[in-house]
Each structure stands twice: as C-alpha cells, then as structure tokens.
Model the fold of this input.
Amino acid sequence: MIPPRILVTGAGGLVGQALVRAAGRWPGADVLATGRGPAVAHDRGGYARLDVLDGGEVERTFQDFAPDVVLHAAGQAQVEACEQDRQSCWALNVDAVVTLAAACHRHGARLVLPSTDFVFDGRSGPYAEGDRPAPANAYGRSKLAAENALRTSHLTAWAVARTTMVFGVPAGEEPRLDVVRWVVRELTAGRPIRVADDQWRTPTYDDDLADGVLRIARLGRQGVFHVSGREQVSVVELARRVAGAFDLDASLIEPAPTAEIHPGAPRPLHAGLLILRAETELGFRPRPLDAALGAVRQRLGATV
Done:
C-alpha cells in the first residue's frame, strides 16, 4: 500500500493534536497539520494555516498537498457558545463539513469526521450506532446536521466517529480545559468544585479516540462508528476517580444537578456510547478509565 498523505484540520486542539500524533505512526505517512492558530510541531510533515470556512483556502490546500485522507477535527465544541451564537456554530460545524466533503469528492480523498454523543437526547444511553438521534441543544443539532451533510453529499468515502467527554494532555497552552484537567487544576489549588451528579457519559482518552479514528481510515471503513471509553460513569464519579488518580482531596467535590451547573444550555443526562461495533470491526480497545487517568498523570508530569 502506498503511504498516505493525511490532512488534519483543527490540529491545535486536544483532539487534533492526538490525531496528528496517531497519523504520524502510520508507516510512511506524510501528515499536514492545519489550523488557524500557532504552528503544531510534529516530525512527520508540516503545518499550514487553514480557515475551513474559506472555500478558496480549502481548494488551494487540496491542490498543494493532495491528501488521501482528511481527519476533520476543526469546529466549535463549546456547548454554551453554540447556544449563544447558533449562526457561527452552524458555520463551523456544518458549512465547513459541506466544503470539505465537496473538496474530498473532487480530489478523491477520504473524510473522517469526529462527532458526539450529544446527537442523542440522553434519555436512554449509552447508545449504539443505530439508535435514533434527537439532539437536546444547538451543539448536538449542528453535529447531527454535519453527519447528515456527509450522508447526502456526493462523497462515498466518508465515516463518522462519535465520541464523548474527551480528555488528555495537549502540548502548549490551550485555553479550554477538559473536565479531567479542570478537576486537577481546581483540586490542586485547594478550591471546592461543583460537579454534575445526574449526567452519565463514557469518558474517552484522547489517544484512544485517535487510535480508533486512524483504524477507520486505515481499514477504509465507512459509516458511523462509536469510539469512546467503555465505562459509563457519572461526571461526579469521574471527578472522584480523578482525585484518586492524582492523590487529591475528593472532599472538595460537591455533587450538583446539571441544570444548575450549566443553565445556559441543556445537556443529555443519560448519554455515553456503546462501542461493540468499533471493538469487533476495528479491533478498537480503549484503556480502562483508571489506566487512562494514570497516563494523563504521567503526561502532565512530563510537561512541568
């Protein structure tokens, strides 16, 4: 097999950085990391600035790099921001997918799109791929619309990797903390925190997600896959597990309803994903939650 040329959008974010690392482990791959922020350093290719909302920039990037695979991590993932500015959310999460799908179709590239368990209403999770979506907020509606845009596009070489509550350790400064690093920061400082006790997810380690996405790409699979952690836990239980993994004071964790913590946008409460299809068809094997938290502790220790 000829080594692929892999284009990663949103390469400066947590998921984008993990995808760049994973893509770099594909033997012989040439990886182009792209984004609107500072350059992302890696040893398997270069970096280029790319605004995925600019069709002209997208076309020039495709002409210059000629990707075989596009891993599209760029987008708006902040739930409150999507609720407050739905037009911007739609542009970043839906219109950009339409633009990239058209470019992939013209240039013969495969597109893999990370998505979310927020496409479901959270009444009966964890969810399988065939369960009926019913988003509860603007973010979930935009991600479902992006999935549907792929389904109705001319592109046939596409896949969706739904995931949930991704945590890990990005390089450099990232203003938006995932829940694990937020808990570590606050408890390390001795500050009490309020954490949702009525919201259930399947937390996902960033390197595990990236491994699942690359498996989809390398095997040439199409359609929707759920790629997340295996354990469904409440957010407050996750926070307590973080405290245990980092030897922090769990008594500072106060359970509270999601509606009080996040009044600006509703969340699906009993969400999370079932990953049997990814396990059987991709050979996907996410780490146990405590092992993943241990890996985060090791990585954070290496950055200080």
Q: What stands out?
A: The radius of gyration is 19 Å. The mean pLDDT is 95.
